[in-house]
Every structure is written in structure tokens, then in C-alpha cells.
Amino acid sequence: xxxxxxxxxxxxxxxxxxxxxxxxxxxxxxxxxKDGSFLKTRNLRGILNMVSVTGxxxxxxxxxxxxxxxxxxxxxEACLGGILCAMLLRAGISWPLALFLAIIYGAxxxxxxxxLANVMNIMGFIATIGMSSVYTGLAKVFTDAKFISVxxxxxxxxxxxxxxxxxxxxxVIMLALMILYGFMLRYTRFGRRSYxxxxxxxxxxxxxxxxxxxxxxxxxxxxxxxAFAGSVLASRMHSATATAAQSVAIDAITASVLGGISFMGGxxxxxxxxVGLMLLSAFNNGLNVVQLQSYWQLVAQGALxxxxxxxxxxxxxxxxxxxxxxxP
Length: 328
Hints:
The chain is mostly helical. It has 14 helices and 4 strands. The protein is globular and about 60 Å long.
């Protein structure tokens, strides 16, 4: 009986259930791919490279979603961050300083988003959609819609090197960030404030907290991590372009929602986000491996996002009903 109840509790856990779905998706694409190419070393390394960029953005996005905010400009922030880093390298600046300045740009971009959302009281997703167009336009202006090559060999190692010849360094960095931010959300005062500000901002204000201050920090954090992710992508691709990282914001949101983070804020965690990220990356890569037409890939990816949002919506409604039943 004890073993059965333990299994039931595990299956009710959304992260565990999602991990099982991920295993099923991997098995499906393994059998659908030619000669099992889906699980070959080269393809698995490609998945980890894909995960590392999206996952770095997803760390910042997950924390922001938990606090009740959202940054739909993360893709363009990542793109412009990579471009600025590449331009600084071509100007002769050392790569650590160029990377640091790109991250500073991302933090400033996040601060602008926070100002529009918290001071100007513009809805977060509207403000960041507008800023996304601004950053995308600037990226095209700076590049003249062309590639900017990155020739710094040391900088290239950041995105191209691997541990044991298999695990990409950017993936290791992403894992470290997830562990760090997961600890912050779970065990620190700021993490608890993030959940409370996202779940019940009015109660947070009555408790003496400032939801705007909390989301401002997390907007800045999301922008900085996005710019860092874009710089890592430029390092791996040995170039920066205005069309890089176009879908990373939507992928980060999809992974977060798949992993149990509520789009309304106040629930979820980094562990679930990681599993959602692995599911999304395996799904997207699998569509390429089985050579599904690009148009149908867009349909499948959009359907996955809608399914994730519907599951989150009905889960949130069930949670609210359960809370009402408990009230005296």
C-alpha cells in the first residue's frame, strides 16, 4: 500500500508527469527517425546547444512570470545583445569586457521594460511587444541586415567548447544558473516575495512588500540573461545577425508554462521549467529529424503552446475552486 501511494503521489506531481511525457516523446522520435538518428551523439549535442540558449532566457523569464510579469522582448534583447558584443569585439575590446557591456545593455533594456510596466502602468506584454520592435529595428540598423563575424578565438570557445567532448559549456552554465535561481526562489526572502507578489499582489502590498520593486529587479534580470544568451549564441555561431534568436522568448514562455509556472504568476518552479524546456527542445528537434515541412512545424509548435496554456488555465481554475471549497 505504501509503495502504491508513493507511486500515485509521484504521478500527481506535474514535474514527474512531464518528465514521463518527455521520455515518451524521445522514444517516439527515436522510432520515427531514420536509423535511430534522433539519439545519436551529434543530434543530442545539438539539442543541448539549443537548450542552453533558450534555457538561459527561460531562467529569467520563469522568475519574471512567477512574480506576475512577462517580457516578450527577450528575443530581440538576446539578438541585440549578441550584435553589440560582436561589434565591441570587432572594435578591439577584450571579450570579457565586451560580454560584460552586452549584459549591461540587457539590464538597461530590462529597466526600460520595468519603467513602462510599473511607472507608466502599461500592461507588461504590450510594453514589451513595443520594445521588441524597437530592439529589432536597432539590430537591423546596426548590422545593415548583414552578418557581423566574430573572429575572437577565445570568445568562440565560450559557445563552442564542450566538457568530455560532448556536454556543451553553455549547457553547463545554464544548469548552474537554474540551480542558483532555483535555490533563490525556494530558500530566500526575495524568492518568497516573488511568489507572493505574483500570486496575490494586493496582499503583498498590505504586508509591506512592493510588487513593482520586485518585478523591476526581475525585468532587469531577464534582460541581462537574455543579452548574455544572445552573446553565447553569437560565440557558438561565430557571427551575429538581426535574425538570430527570433523564437527564444516564446520558447522560454512555453517551457515555463509546460513546467507548471502559471502565466498569472505565483506558482511553479525552476525544476518544472527545466523539464518543460527539455520536452520542448526534444519536440522541436524531433520535428526536424523526421523532416516535417517547416510550415507544419510552425503549426505543431503553436499547437503545443496553446495546449500548454489550456492546461495551465484549467489547472489554475481547479486550484481556485479547491481554495474556495476550503474557505469556511
